[in-house]
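Tutorial, part two.
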Amino acid sequence: MKRTALVTGASRGLGRAIALELGAAGMNVVANYFNGKDGAEDLCDQIRKLGAQALAVKANVRNPTEIDALVTQAEKVKEKQFGRIIQIGSEVFELGNPRFANYVAAKGAQLGQTRSWARELAPTGITVNLVAPGWIPTERHVGTPQAEIDQYLQTLPTKKMGVPQD
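Running the prediction step on this input gives:
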């Protein structure tokens, strides 16, 4: 039986790259999007060409204060003794960032949540991890001044940014 992954923000950027990689690995993908219907449908077409099933689902999950409950079939997952929760964080919670205190605080809280869930769910066979990439240029970074990009690059050992496919 093929496994299925739900990828939020799958119509572009990192979410899209992650969904494609999961599809290429043989997983079925539920591609969540909010504004990028065409991108999500195109993504699903690409995943289907790879031999996996894909479904685009529109839902706004951007603002957690608008989400009142997260309901999963946790009992079914626990019965299987297998599950994966992978959150996308950011290196910014370790570095700090002027003018982005709210974002930095949210990413720090996300790390604490991940660690707590990991301990809570480990006995059931569900692992919880957080991937904290550095600055990956995506659509949201269009218009960033080159001087800011150059300054960031100087902090990196490789002196180059990653790409969503990394």
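Helices lie at 13-24, 37-49, 74-80, 92-95, 101-121, 146-153. In part three we will examine how such features are distributed along the chain.
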